[in-house]
Design brief:
The protein is an all-beta fold and about 120 residues long. It contains no helices and 11 strands. About 0% of the residues lie in helices and about 50% in strands. The strands form 2 sheets. Strands 2, 4, 5, 6, 9, 10 and 11 form a 7-stranded mixed beta sheet that branches. A 4-stranded antiparallel beta sheet has the order 1-3-8-7, with no helix packed on it.
Length: about 120
């Protein structure tokens, strides 16, 4: 079974770029019909979908975050990454990566990583 695991710094300063990596095991990120997502949950709030990168390499972003977000992949390392630019304290959240293989709609989640934006 495919598993995903987030990694990256837990503290980022305002105006800097948040960078997280998700390492995939048990399968290839280029396997047909897989979608690799980033999702976050700010303290006391609900889940927010950030975007995903498809098995084809195509990317899709939340309209509210699109101008600051970039998701890319490294097929040689079987990883995909999130970059969120110009962060503010409102970007403080637990960040999750997750996988889904269509037509199944279930998401398989990583354990999540806390990112705090603070000077």
């Amino acid at each position: 079974q495919v598993q995903v695991q987030e990694s990256g710094p837990g503290l980022v300063k305002p105006s800097q770029t948040l960078s997280l990596t998700c390492t995939v095991s048990g399968g290839s990120i280029t396997t047909n019909y897989y979608y690799w997502s980033w999702i976050r949950q700010p303290p006391g709030k609900g889940l927010e979908w950030i975007g995903h990168i498809a098995y084809s390499g195509n990317t899709y972003y939340s309209p509210s975050l699109k101008s600051r977000t970039s998701i890319s992949r490294d097929t040689s390392k079987n990883q995909f990454t999130l970059q969120l630019k110009s962060v503010t304290p409102e970007d403080t959240a637990v960040y999750y990566c997750a996988s889904m293989q269509r037509p199944d709609s279930r998401l398989y989640w990583g354990q999540g990583t806390q990112v705090t934006v603070s000077s």
